[in-house]
Amino acid sequence: xxxxxxxxxxxxxxxxxxxxxxxxxxxxxxxxxxxxxxxxxxxxxxxxxxxxxxxxxxxxxxxxxxxxxxxxxxxxxxxxxxxxxxxxxxxxxxxxxxxxxxxxxxxxxxxxxxxx
Length: 116
Known about the structure:
By secondary structure, this protein is mostly helical.
């Protein structure tokens, strides 16, 4: 069964530049484990300027992925804040009659001397 691999624009450009620098089709095909015909196709596309469009598209995709990652982090942060606020709301506001002192305990009982 034939295997189908996807190569990056940078890899394709590198192979084409090696070919244009004088490397043989056979040597490149053997070293990179790709067909000579595929290298010929890449050279034609390179000379037609198709790799420039692919590079721009790849840069655009990378920028979109970075933006998506930043938005996902923001959504996660906001979800945590929302959960915190919901829990605080469930506890309810403190009654105004509640003691505001740091020392909390039962109210002091009046002494017998005060009762007479």
